[in-house]
Design goal:
Chain lengths: ~270, ~260
């Protein structure tokens, strides 16, 4: 009741008295919790290491520079593997994501109560587990190597691609579909003429976007033994070969920049 | 040619869009369906080719009863009913030619249509139709590059290449300017005459309807309130269809043949 009548005068305040007191109390509780947490964290931190951090970072920097350029000869194949893991993984995931997306979109699903929940479950479960964890599982199942990496990337990407694609399918202009249906077209023809042309730009955008993400994800898969440049990264880290680490990071950076440039070009060409 | 018997549609929301509609359309007759928004015009048209499933009643196209057909037989009958839409409903990212040829989808198999290998006779017919509506030079353009009037012409070609016996036309002029509206209406009516097609044109521009058709059906709350020649649309009749309003200006414009339209 911000408007009050005080001796014939209309007074307006943002909050009533009781509201402002409760706001103050809420703020007080918040600050108290923050102070308590701060103290807890502070007690369990070895502050010596924190104060020491700049010196250590500087130390690593001097050890890592200059990069060991001649090591580049051994990086060609791993980075090529990494690119292949990302590309093949994306292609496999798209092949599987397209039918799942059609089953999940509520305007194309054959059954809202049975098939759609299953498709959505596949999407959610694929998205909820990180590709590094998928790779760990798959290495146990199919052994270490590039193939495990490809499958890990593919499984992780299915959910992402299918989700974005089914949202695109749900947003299509339904009158175009109606028009094709009205000509006497079959169900598959309606899909090929009424739906596919409408989602094609979204599909291409999703594909390059995911490929771009997968290049970054596949660089770390080697850390758990799933092939690619991550393998070199982990072995260099293990022997504290900092000049090699810095060169690997540089190569990854360049690969990511190139992939981003390519995907930007492709997206620009389609839309 | 087309016979509707006690056609009813009740939507899931409980709205009764059509109340026991009886209608007989003879061969080659062009009729206009007028009525206020929400009167059930679009529903009526869509119940005929079952883009909307009617709740009860029967639809006869020639001798065939449509409401009880299996989906395969329905597809075959849909080929005989060309449909033209309000917002053109072209597939925007396909070329004009592909849009026109999509009218033949009911006649060709999936893979032929998917690979765009339509029979040469269909392609010839598509060129003839595009020539007829004055768009032959546009065949390779993408549909979204065309203006509204041009798109509607492509929509007309798509409906006609089906070689239909009946045209279902849903607000063909609602998104067009007055001059283009007249041209499109004239084109539709001419083509119907040339080919002896029956047509149901759902339109909310009363003056335009009066100008071009032989018969007018007035729909209000899903029931037929008026059925007669365009001259029969007196102010009293329009009041029963649309409600109280000054109708003189609307009716006058029938006699006035200039390109400036006076509506409502």
């Amino acid at each position: 009741m911000p408007v009050q009548d005080l001796q014939g005068k209309q007074v307006w305040q943002r909050n009533t008295g009781r509201e402002s007191i409760s706001h103050w109390i809420i703020w007080l509780i918040g600050v108290a919790i923050f102070a308590y947490c701060w103290q807890k964290i502070s007690n369990s931190t070895t502050w010596f290491f924190v104060w020491d951090a700049p010196r250590i970072a500087d130390d690593i920097w001097t050890r890592a520079t200059p990069p060991r350029w001649e090591y580049i000869a051994q990086l060609g194949e791993p980075i090529w593997d990494t690119l292949n893991i990302a590309t093949l993984g994306t292609i496999f995931s798209l092949i599987l994501a397209v039918p799942i997306a059609f089953l999940a979109a509520h305007n194309t699903t054959p059954s809202k109560f049975f098939v759609r929940p299953i498709a959505l479950l596949i999407i959610v479960s694929s998205r909820s587990i990180n590709s590094l964890i998928w790779a760990l599982l798959l290495i146990a199942i199919i052994g270490p190597g590039v193939f495990a990496g490809v499958i890990a990337i593919a499984i992780r990407s299915i959910g992402f691609c299918a989700k974005l694609l089914y949202e695109a399918i749900e947003e299509i202009d339904q009158t175009q579909v109606e028009a094709i249906t009205a000509t006497g077209a079959s169900r598959w023809q309606v899909m090929a003429y009424g739906i596919v042309p409408q989602i094609l730009p979204a599909f291409a955008g999703i594909a390059v976007f995911r490929w771009d993400i997968n290049i970054r994800e596949s660089t770390v898969l080697g850390l758990v033994g799933a092939g690619g440049i991550g393998l070199q990264l982990s072995s260099s880290l293990n022997v504290l070969a900092w000049p090699q680490v810095s060169l690997i990071l540089l190569v990854i950076l360049i690969a990511v920049i190139i992939s981003e440039w390519v995907s930007a070009k492709v997206r620009g060409a389609i839309i | 040619m087309l016979r509707l018997e006690k056609l009813e549609k009740t939507y899931k929301t409980g709205d009764q869009a059509l109340k026991s509609v009886q209608l007989l359309v003879p061969e080659g007759q062009v009729l206009a369906l007028i009525g206020p928004s929400g009167a059930g015009k679009s529903t009526l048209i869509r119940c005929i080719n079952r883009l909307v499933e009617p709740t009860s009643g029967k639809v006869y196209l020639g001798e065939v009863e449509l409401t009880s057909l299996s989906s395969n037989n329905l597809r075959r009958e849909r080929r005989r009913m060309g449909m033209i839409f309000q917002e053109y409903a072209l597939v925007e990212r396909l070329s004009v030619m592909e849009n026109v040829l999509s009218g033949r989808l009911g006649y060709v198999g999936f893979w032929r249509s998917f690979l765009r290998r339509f029979p040469q006779s269909d392609v010839d017919e598509a060129f003839r139709l595009l020539e007829r509506v004055g768009l032959a030079h546009m065949a390779d353009k993408r549909a979204d590059e065309l203006s509204g009037g041009q798109r509607q012409r492509v929509g007309i070609c798509r409906a006609l290449i089906q070689n239909p016996a009946l045209l279902l036309v849903d607000e063909p002029t609602a998104s067009l300017d007055p001059k283009t509206s007249r041209q499109i209406m004239r084109l539709i009516c001419e083509l119907c005459k040339e080919r002896g097609l029956a047509a149901i044109i759902n339109i909310h521009d009363v003056a335009l309807a009066q100008m071009f058709v032989q018969r007018v059906i007035g729909l209000r709350f899903g029931a037929i309130e008026f059925d007669g020649p365009p001259e029969g649309l007196t102010p009293e009749v329009l009041t029963t269809i649309y409600g109280e309003e000054d109708w003189e200006a609307t009716i006058e414009s029938v006699d006035d043949d200039s390109d400036i339209m006076v509506t409502k």
